[in-house]
Amino acid sequence: MENRRYVEFSLEEFSNEVAAKKTMPGGGSVAAYCSSLSSALASMVGNFTVGKKKYQQYDEDVNVIIEKAKEYEKISLDLVDEDVEAYLPLSNAYKLPSDTEEEKKLKQHTIQDCLKVAASVPLKTLQISNEILKLHEELLVKGSNMLISDVGVGVMMLKASVLSAKLNILINIKYIDDESFVNEYKLELESLEKKICDSCDRIYQSVVEKLI
């Protein structure tokens, strides 16, 4: 990957890296990138809304949205690389020797620890997606109608991120032996998935109705 973070790659370079015959970057990084794009769209809608006479009553609120969107975009972009950084130790753990009983125990313990770290990144993607959702919910009402379609695209990118992050959580916790950890993750996953996806569908439908 050279010595650059993936977020420093061009769109074409990143796409080529994903397409390459290697495990990183993969679905977890792509999920986080979808969240960053959703947040970026929230920024764009906000930037085109502020200063417009028709929406001046919302200027203060929309300026707050823009600042939050910038923050959430950065967090999401950081998760693109964090997912790779979390997967590498897991990949190496599977390569540890297991000839003796002691080596087997060490390998299993290391794999379990690495799986927990790997599962934590897509959960962070879910959590930041929940925050980004709030921006789009507000922009549906306070954003410029000229950019209402971008709110719709934003929530669909967010839904894609959430469903993709879900798969990356499930594939990691599937092999974790700690039942308490697994149950905790499943509960938060189910709660966030339903809340975000239901809201995204509702906002998307509202956008469609405004455009017809």
TrEMBL record:
Organism this protein belongs to: Peptostreptococcus porci
Domain Cyclodeaminase/cyclohydrolase stretches: 10-190
Family annotation (InterPro entries): Cyclodeamin/CycHdrlase (IPR007044), Formintransfe-cycloase-like_sf (IPR036178)
Superkingdom field: Bacteria
Molecular functions (GO terms): hydrolase activity
Keyword terms: Hydrolase
Pfam families noted in UniProt: FTCD_C (PF04961)
Presence of the UniProt keyword Transcription regulation in the record: no
Protein's UniProt name: Cyclodeaminase/cyclohydrolase family protein
